[in-house]
């Protein structure tokens, strides 16, 4: 009896310690996986193939916007929306901001008529809730994080990155990291596209600039042919 | 006192570690063109957040400017070039 009584707690302790060990193993593995994923995504935004794919898809989307016409969203705004949409698609749904961009467009499409009214109402309620609630970002030992200035900046950042208004701080930071890389790629691709198109249109007027126009046409050809990037 | 208690409750529930946040902030700092060269000791986390907001806003502005230019170019390029581009794209479909 005494021996069993002694052995049981020992067994329990070992079970508990095993469980504890298992739990401890899981969490760092998850973190490591997430970090690797984040790093892989980072390098992906910088790759040339990603930029090529984005440029060609953007070109197609822009063509569709032009051909279907509708000056409803004014020129530049339509281009911006198409560019953001293609960027979000390029993210392949791995990040919150990309999903938020895509769902927002669907929401706006359905709520076209009452969009302005709803937006007004929404801003009022969020303003009130912000005043009543304390900031949800609860951070802990670092002294700066409890400063209201820091919290304010974190919430501003959350508002800038689509889909991150009510997310806790580490989520906002992660999303911002990926979002910045994606935006940089967007800028690079659109700059290159603008140069191509401006080169093409300027050379069309001058008859002797056949070489430059052909080079830009070749570049555009490359864009068109790179529609199906190699699956990696 | 109550704030300390609530803080510990939050920390137990959310498991967001300090190191995690420091790591994320440093990663963010590496991306910012302003702060990349500076040694990380001198840059506070608030500064990183501020620069991030500024950088994202400037990127947004750049994209807006580029969209304007692109829309103008596409609107004005109703020339043979546009038809050429269109035919190139339709070939790939």
TrEMBL record, chain A:
Any one of the GO CC terms: nucleus
Instruction: Give GO MF terms, alphabetically.
Output: protein dimerization activity; transcription cis-regulatory region binding
One biological process term from GO is: regulation of DNA-templated transcription
Q: Where in the cell is it found?
A: Nucleus
Disordered, as annotated region: 1-32, 200-232
Q: Which species expresses this protein natively?
A: Coffea arabica
Its signal peptide is: none
Return the protein name: Transcription factor bHLH148-like
Q: Where is the composition biased (Low complexity)?
A: 200-216
Q: Which UniProt keywords apply?
A: Nucleus, Transcription, Transcription regulation
All residue ranges annotated as the IBH1-like N-terminal domain in the record:
49-106
Q: Where is the composition biased (Polar residues)?
A: 1-16
SUPFAM superfamilies noted in UniProt: HLH, helix-loop-helix DNA-binding domain (SSF47459)
Output the InterPro entries linked to this UniProt entry.
Answer: bHLH_AtIBH1-like (IPR044549), HLH_DNA-bd_sf (IPR036638), IBH1-like (IPR044660), IBH1_N (IPR059002)
Q: What Pfam families does the record tag this protein with?
A: IBH1_N
Automatic annotation (TrEMBL), chain B:
- What cellular-component terms does GO give this entry? nucleus
Its primary localisation, in coarse terms, equals nucleus
User: Please, one GO biological process term?
Assistant: regulation of growth
**What keywords are assigned to this protein?**
Growth regulation, Nucleus, Transcription, Transcription regulation
PROSITE patterns the record matches: BHLH
InterPro entries named among the record's database cross-references: bHLH_dom (IPR011598), HLH_DNA-bd_sf (IPR036638), PRE (IPR044293)
Q: For the BHLH domain, which residue ranges apply?
A: 5-59
From the Swiss-Prot or TrEMBL record, what is one GO molecular function term? Answer: protein dimerization activity
- Asked whether the UniProt record includes Cytoplasm among its keywords, one would answer no
| Source organism, top-level taxon | Eukaryota
Query: Known Pfam families for this protein?
Result: bHLH_ILI (PF23174)
Q: Which Gene3D superfamilies match?
A: Helix-loop-helix DNA-binding domain (4.10.280.10)
Its annotated compartments are: Nucleus
Q: Does the keyword Nucleus apply?
A: yes
Q: Which PANTHER family match?
A: TRANSCRIPTION FACTOR PRE (PTHR46446), TRANSCRIPTION FACTOR PRE3 (PTHR46446:SF3)
> What protein is this chain from?
BHLH domain-containing protein
Q: Which organism is it from?
A: Coffea canephora
